[in-house]
Amino acid sequence: MSQIPAVLADAVVYASWLFVIAVGLTLIYGVMKILNIAHGSLYALGAYSAVTLAGGWLAKGYAPLGSYAMLALAALLVGLIAGPVIERGLLRFLYAKDEIVLVLVTYALFLILEDAIKLTWGVDPMFVAEPYALLGNFEIAGLTYPTYTLVLVAAAIVVGLALWWALGFTRSGKMLLAVIHDREMSAAMGVNVGLTYFVTFTIGAFLAALGGALTAPTISVVTGMGAEVIVTAFAVVVIGGLGSLGGAALGAVIVGLVRSAAVHYQPELELFSIYLVMAAVLIARPKGLFSGAEVRKI
Amino acid sequence: MSVHRTSVALVAAAGALLALGPVIPNWAVSLVNVSLGIGVVVLGMMVLMRTGLVSFGHGLYYCLGAYAAGLASNRFGAPDMLAMVAGGALAALLVSAVLGLLLAKYREIFFAMLSLAFSMILYGLLVKSADLGSTDGFNVHAKSIAGFAVEGDAHRLGVYSVIVITAALCALLLDAYLRSHRGRLAEAIRDNELRVEYMGASVFATVHLNYVISAVLAGVGGALMAIHIGHIDPEMTYWPQSGEFVFIGILSGTGSVFAPLLGSVVFETVRSYAYEKSPDTWQMVLGVTMLMVIVFLPGGLWSLASRLRGRPDSARTGG
Amino acid sequence: MIKAMKPSRLAAAATAIVLALGAPVLMAQQKTSIKVGFVTFLSGPAAGPFGVPARQAAEAIVESLNAGKAPAPYQIKGIGGLPLELVVIDEAGGATKQVSEYRTLVQRQEVDFVIGYIGSGDCLAIAPVAEELKKLTVFFDCGTPRIFEEASYKYVFRTRPHATMDAVAATLYLLDNRPAVKRIAGINQNYAYGQDSWNDFEATIKVLKPEVEIVTSQMPKFGAGQYGAEISALAGANPDVIHSSLWGGDLEAFMLQAQPRDLFKKNILVLVAGEPYLHRLPGKIPDGTVVGARGVNAVFAADSPLKRWLTDLYKAKAGIEPNYPAYSVANAFLGVKAAWEKAAAKKVGSAIPMGANKNVKEEMEKAYAPPTQEEVIAMFEKLSFDTPSGKVQMSLGKGHQAVTGTAYGTTRFENGVVKVGNIKYYPAERVNPPEGVSSLDWIKSGFRATAK
Question: C115-124 pLDDT, tens per residue?
């Protein structure tokens, strides 16, 4: 039996997951030039909230389909609370700092949130598996896949298309692009950069939490999960080109394919696959696959 | 020509630490050992930072240095502290000279990320090396210093002395380099590469050299840590370790070669007390400390020292 | 010149602060309590399944021992009549940091002994430091056989058997119950424990049944979380048996993803460390899964006053039955207690009889003083003591490494709980190598090698 259909199917599923966890990271970097390590914590927060809400919903005996709404609600809540709190309460005072210092700020935030999560939810792994199996299964090449994986793929596509449309075809999206292109010039032209940052960070936080909430039914939510995810997400956005939406998608697809092929043909290589791709891409294209020419500042 | 005052101070500090060695409690010896071992790596971070570069993968050389020292001792029959330090430096030198050819063209986040990728590839290789103990690593025991066998208390003091002297020597040499013509180019490159090129200096060669210097320092630090801890494992090249170096670098400031050494003493002390006093929330303590330093001491801890000396500018100009 | 001295003055000031912070507290004249350093994961992925249960067990055991509520032969209060006091440290951060924290624990906190360490890398790194600092240190949970196979130690003990036993017994159990297995697959985390676990299993089954075929060995990275491709690869390889040493969140994620995909319909799953998850995954563990508890722990332990004692105190603390890490903790505390009290009894027993000497008072005081660390260690070596999981014998590693028998069983889902049936016990000597032979050599020799 040929393994190729399975390799492709697994690659698509994994790539969708990667895209959902990475897209918020690239958005925030693109607009704010912050490589947000706390993205991992927001992902974990989304997952924990999703387990709590969906688990509570199911425990009350409400309609199981409603648990999907709970996943979405969890992502929204985290995005709308944690995002603004972090941006207004901390980051906005530090925008003048160096890019690297901002990375450290988010690293500090990551450490703080890790312990905050532990204090809130404890250290026992938690899960709510029902939404994963609820929709039944389908088959590809003799292998069974839960229909929920299609939800994940669909979510990735919807998020990707929505961002593409919002950035390219709406007024505020165009302003955002203007800020990405040249922060000072946009401010001079009357774009409210502060507001742009606020909105971007909130959306980014929501996307991180959405990644966590959508992943939650497939895993056991556990302390330290954010740390595992963040470097993978970095690799994806760096491969694609930091700050590029299409890049994040392409990076996710490449990493998904390479990892899936490794697992099926050379399981030994799985551990390296993502970093080998990252090094190879950066060597060939120093700024990732999608990177525009930059104005050289003298 | 007079001996520079930083050199005098370094020698005096090293002498004081050596004299204190036999009288301070054992755990303080350990604290000094760890801080200086890490401090040497952070000296390397300082060179890079002055050049305007930050590596999220310097664990690569820290780990290479430690493994080279460990292999020198366990496989190549050289369980001598000096040989191990030399081995660590050499391994870092060779690898960084090659990778530097590539990395010297990278800047900003891309430099950081490519460094990260290399360090994680080393991590993967080591995890797959069952022969080297995979993630469990292996134990190392240095038996002599320059051929003189040391055991027991002599070993303890020997390790301490080797670390103090090596760290002081690294700082002395680095300080001399940073004051040299080539060394001063680093900050010029950070501020404006084109101007440096117009002046006729090679940006590439300088960045490459600084990269190699910082890698060798990391390798030496790794070897020192292998000697002190007595155990090495791939965790040394995992990304949070590299992140910690960047953090201590920023915490310390780049004003003087003293900064990284003192900064890592402060960091290790805070971390150790956080583990002890608040085992459930030590990460939070570290995170809050980090934020406070960034917000209130933007020039790092060294700016505090400079402020005490009434020279607020030295954090940036490197006095 | 004055200015030039500033940096060194700063250095001196820093040293002085460091010194002042750590100035040793004056020792009390008479020993009134025993300070125990306890190191376990409080954060990271190992905290939930192992670290925190271990801490809860340790705290509950200490309370119970201090109150003198433990059953015979452990009814003396605390240890030798002295109450225990715990200092808990997080094991997270890697071996390098743990070595520093260990030094702090021993030298700044001045603990009397240390019980701890779940990570094998941490144990390997700590052992020589314990030796250097001459501090009794008991590893309660780490599994690697390398500790006492690569070196020997005076101050270091491990009160649980090493991990080779798990793989050997799993294979024996599998072949006893399903002698026809042909196609073997594995999914283990890509780190030392996962690799060792798989290598030992593979080596054992190749010795016992050379015609088996290894169809795939999946090695996802630690904490991967997403196992879609691995599950496809396992299903595609069509194995009779899937071996896994996954644990914690990784195991649960794997089970949650594999079960809906019908991975386990046609094969037997072997979970060498599956016991702690039985109560957590009701309905998610397929019937017929082979599970172990890394020793005769938890469901495998025979009923005894000690088992009831541990079960009651742990339930009161954590609300659930103790899992195998809790049993490991009990082994460590009871081992030290047994050795200590034996040493104390020996001192009293060999003291000069009253009236036979002029210095009666001094001699009696000496005899009833707590035993020295060296005296405790002398009794600890080759000790045999009772625990909630039965007899533990310190018979490997020159008397520093415990061996016990072990057991495996098969799961079935009944009335909403996972039950373990068809339990088989394997005596210690059948699943542990003899003294002086490395685990892998012993397996590869067909379990025949003896020390040269």
Answer: 999 999 999 9
Across the B:C interface, residue pairs with CB atoms under 8 Å apart total 164
Per-domain boundaries in chain B: 5-238
- Chain C residues touching residue B314 (CB < 8 angstroms): none
Residue A50 lies in a domain: yes
**Nearest CA to CA, how far is C355 from chain B (Å)?**
43
Domain CATH for A10: 1.10.3470
Q: What is the per-residue pLDDT across C81-90, written as a single tens digit (0 to 9) for each?
A: 999 999 999 9
Contact B136 C190 (CB under 8 A): no
Token pair of A184, please? 């000072």
Interchain CB contacts (distance < 8 Å): A and C:
133
With H, G, I as helix, E, B as strand and everything else as coil, classify residue B56: coil
CB contact under 8 A, A282 and B117: yes
Among the partner-chain residues C43, C223, C232, the one whose CB lies closest to the CB of A228 is C223
Taking contacts as CB-CB distances below 8 angstroms, the residues of chain C near B5 are 3-4
Residue C86 phi/psi, 5-degree rounding, is -95, 140
Domains of chain A: total: 1
* CB distance C96 to B229 below 8 Å: yes
Give Rg (Cα) of chain A.
19
Asked if C302 is an interface residue toward chain B (Cβ–Cβ < 8 A), one would say no
pTM: 0.90
C125–B231 CB contact, under 8 Å: yes
Three-state DSSP state, A228 = helix
- Contact at CB, B283 and A115, closer than 8 angstroms: yes
CA distance B177 to B159: 27
Cα distances (angstroms) measured from residue C428 to each of A33, A204, C295, C425: 60, 56, 10, 9
Kindly identify which residue of chain C lies nearest to residue A17, measuring between CA atoms. C226
A117 falls within a domain:
yes
Asked if the C-beta of C230 comes within 8 angstroms of chain A's C-beta atoms, the answer is yes
**Residue B301 Cα, gap to closest chain A Cα (Å):** 14
CA distance C281 to B305: 57
Tell me what the mean pLDDT of segment B95-118 comes to.
91
The pLDDT of residue C356 is 60
Helix (H) or strand (E) holding C8: helix C2-22
CB A248 within 8 A of CB A23: yes
pLDDT of residue B181: 85
Report the C-alpha gap between B140 and B226 in whole angstroms.
Answer: 7
Q: Write out the residue range of the structural domain in which residue A221 sits.
A: 4-284
- Output the furthest CA–CA distance in chain A (Å, rounded): 65
pLDDT tens by residue, C193-209: 999 999 999 999 999 99
Cβ within 8 Å of residue A278, ≥6 positions away: A235, A238, A239, B113, B114, B117
Pairing of strands C384-387, C390-396: antiparallel
Residue A267 to residue C52, Cβ atoms within 8 A: no
Collapsed DSSP state (helix, strand, coil) of residue C137: strand
